[in-house]
C-alpha cells in the first residue's frame, strides 16, 4: 500500500566532465604581517601600566571603605553618649 513506485527504466544522470572554468581559482598568498619589537614592547608596557592603575584604584577603594566604616563606628559611639 505504501510502497514507492519506481520508474520502469531509470535514466542515469548526465555525465559531467570538469572543464578549466570549473577549477577552483588559485589562492593568492596572504600578505606578510610583521610585528616589530617596539610594538610588542609598547603593548606590554601599556598593559603593565593599566594593570598598575587598576590595582591602585582597587586599593584606594578598599582603604576609603575601611576609613568610612571606622568613622561611622566612631561617630555612632559619640552620639550614644
Could you explain how this protein is built, in words?
- By secondary structure, this protein is an all-alpha fold.
- Helices cover 54% and strands 0% of the residues.
- It has one helix and no strands.
- The chain has one helix at 37-80.
- It is elongated.
- The model has no long low-confidence stretch (mean pLDDT 83).
Looking at this protein, list some descriptive labels.
single chain, 81 residues, mainly alpha, 1 helix, 54% helix, elongated
Topology of helices and strands:
Blueprint: H1 37-80
- Give the overall average pLDDT: 83
Q: How many distinct helices?
A: 1
Q: How would the global form be characterised?
A: elongated
Low-confidence stretches: none
Following the backbone from N to C, one meets helices and strands in this order, namely: H
- Please state roughly what percent of the residues sit in beta strands, choosing from under 5%, 5-15%, 15-25%, 25-35%, 35-45% or over 45%: under 5%
**Distance linking N and C termini:** 99 Å
> Would you report the number of β strands?
0
Largest sheet: none
SS class: mainly alpha
Q: Taking Cα atoms only, what radius of gyration do you get, to the nearest Å?
A: 38 Å
Helix content: 40-55%
Amino acid at each position: 500500500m505504501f510502497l514507492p513506485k519506481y520508474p520502469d527504466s531509470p535514466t542515469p544522470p548526465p555525465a559531467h566532465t570538469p572543464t578549466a572554468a570549473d577549477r577552483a581559482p588559485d589562492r593568492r598568498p596572504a600578505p606578510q604581517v610583521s610585528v616589530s619589537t617596539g610594538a610588542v614592547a609598547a603593548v606590554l608596557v601599556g598593559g603593565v601600566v593599566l594593570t598598575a592603575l587598576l590595582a591602585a584604584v582597587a586599593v584606594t577603594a578598599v582603604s576609603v571603605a575601611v576609613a568610612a566604616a571606622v568613622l561611622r563606628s566612631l561617630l555612632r559611639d559619640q552620639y550614644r553618649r
